[in-house]
Amino acid sequence: MAQASKTVKAFAALQAGQTVSHWEFPAPELTPHMIAVDVTHCGICHSDIHMMGDEWRGDTGGSPTTFPLVPGHEVIGTVSALGSAVTGFKVGQRVGFGAQGSSCHECALCAKGHEHNCTKFGGLYDPNHGGYAAHIRADSRFCFAIPDEIPSAHVAPLMCAGVTVFTPLATHLLPPGSRVGIVGIGGLGHLALQFANKMGYHVTAISTSPSKEAEARSLGAHAFLNSSDAAQMKAHGNAFPLIIYTASGNIDWNAYMGLVAPEGKFVVCGLPEAKIQVSPMYLIGGSKTIVGSLVGGTKAIKEMLAFSALHGVRPMIEEVEVGHGADADKVNAALTRVRENKARYRCVMKYRV
Fold first, then answer.
1. Does the reported pTM lie above 0.85?
2. pLDDT at residue 57, rounded to an integer
3. Is 113 within a domain?
4. Which of 17, 68, 103, 152: disulfide with 118, CB 3.0–4.6 Å?
């Protein structure tokens, strides 16, 4: 089904910086594999802020940002039109997009649903436009049906934050009851605690903030480790076959690798500002591994959505109601809360009809 060209109202970063403004752009042509979606909700991810600030250029391993930039890769909405080659979706259906918008669709990784590791990985936005907009058109092969059990405002953060922590837990499987450590109780960590608990692990929340212990336990932690306490860190030496690092702060890598059990893994999901620096002996002794993990492929996203629907995994959100072409100040206020780590724990825009 084709759809006539339309002008899209959006919130865009017009140049490198920390705020968005009202902006309009022509919707791209609806090519055969593209799906057109009217956006109802979009989560605000810290990655949006990095992209708006053009912070991933140079030796970071990322790429320069293209401006104007319409961010947003935690997108929920309703299908309004389908390209000629699109299958499995229908007009009026509730769907979602995550961080990825393209891959080669030809390599072995793509063939097994690991498109997130394809060397031709392309983000949902930049140079295309994301979900801080009334309408989005993107590759239907990275579009997902949303389970009825999960409200739109709560499923939006799952499309990026949720799959980011679900993927390493599902990839590096352990026997039930195994000890798993979750570093950081924030936008990623509060979801990781829930997933790990529902997968049957003995979960320890690891944080520099003792005040978060009660909340961590309410989210699924069985134990709490204050990483600012040297005695507690020493007492948990070699204790965890798997640790998921979800924070963005800089840490003492030797101390944290000391927590990893022999032949265990320390999975990096968060993006610390400083480079990883660890003594080789903390890797050689016990044959320990530091592993990276980037979002998740189509297979993981489908499994994550089904798991969340079945087990009641839900993000804690702050909902911000905005109008199309209005309320840029509200969006910028929410971006500030996320940037300053004041959001508890994900901000989600809800667009007024």
1. yes
2. 83
3. yes
4. 103
